[in-house]
Amino acid sequence: MRCPKPMPEDVSLRLLPEDWLGPLDLAGEWEQDGPRILDLGCGKGRFLLAHAARNPDARLLGVERKLRRIRKIDSKACRAGLRNIRILRMEAMYTLNHLMPENWIDICFVYFPDPWPKEKHHKNRIFGPEFLDSLDRVLSETGVVHFATDNRNYFEEVAEVLQSDSRWRPAEVYIPCEDEVSDFELVWRDTRPTNRLSFQRG
Ligand SMILES: C[S@@+](CC[C@H](N)C(=O)[O-])C[C@H]1O[C@@H](n2cnc3c(N)ncnc32)[C@H](O)[C@@H]1O
């Protein structure tokens, strides 16, 4: 393998070699000091953008793997002049496990994660033991997770997993205001009821 080109002398290396694979310096991304809010799989961002507008002191990070959706959020955020959001085009588990500092998130929204309705595909659902371990690592001591889905089977599965995991206790459910209703919920709520569940550490 060829050696990489040497860095120009005026480029100062901020990181020590042992930090190269370490978490991002997310704290430096925002001017605000307020609560740190994560929207995992934020889709086209209707919830993220409205929640950011309603909470100007909070710091919101949207994570989404589809580029077209990221672009939509970007242009809407620019039009709205929002200064308190960041968007990461990234896989959710990679973000939690490799990019995010420990004990960093105060509130995490997981709204309508892909339900993988066929039983043989349930293993692809994001909520599982590994996801809960990752949340346990990135959430602050009082960190809360708000989960919503229109898939009753998925909802019951998550409720059952949480009941048998002593790291979590139920928390007050967050009901979004009308302008915060997510893109997915807006399309389907008349035909498929939403199930909500919230939990926190402790
Ligand atoms: C059903 S949509 C819901 C979007 C949004 N939360 C809402 O309620 O409108 C699920 C979203 O999660 C994204 N997604 C699914 N798996 C993901 C992963 N592993 N990492 C990042 N994004 C993911 C999909 O691209 C999609 O935009």
Beta-strand content:
15-25%
- Structure summary, number of beta strands: 7
What small molecules accompany the polymer chains? S-adenosylmethionine
Mean pLDDT: 91
Strand order of the largest sheet: 3-2-1-4-5-7-6
Shape: globular
Return the structural class: alpha/beta
- How many strands, what sense, and barrel or not for the largest sheet? 7 strands, mixed
Instruction: Assign the CATH architecture.
Output: 3-Layer(aba) Sandwich
Total domains: 1
Task: Indicate the CATH topology.
Answer: Rossmann fold
Give the number of helices.
6
* Rg over C-alpha atoms, rounded to the nearest angstrom: 18 Å
Order of helices and strands: EHEHEHEHEHEHE
CATH class: Alpha Beta
Search tags:
7-stranded mixed β-sheet, 202 residues, alpha/beta, Rossmann fold
Q: What does this 3D model show about the protein?
A:
- The protein is α/β, with parallel strands linked by helices.
- It has 6 helices and 7 strands, in the order E-H-E-H-E-H-E-H-E-H-E-H-E.
- The protein is 29% helix and 22% strand.
- The chain has a 7-stranded mixed beta sheet, with helices on both faces.
- Helix 2 (67-80) links the parallel strand 2 and strand 3.
- The termini are far apart.
- The relative contact order is 0.15.
- The model has no long low-confidence stretch (mean pLDDT 91).
- Residues 41-43, 63-66, 69, 91-92, 111-114, 182-185 line the site of S-adenosylmethionine.
- S-adenosylmethionine (SAM) binds next to strand 2 and helix 6.
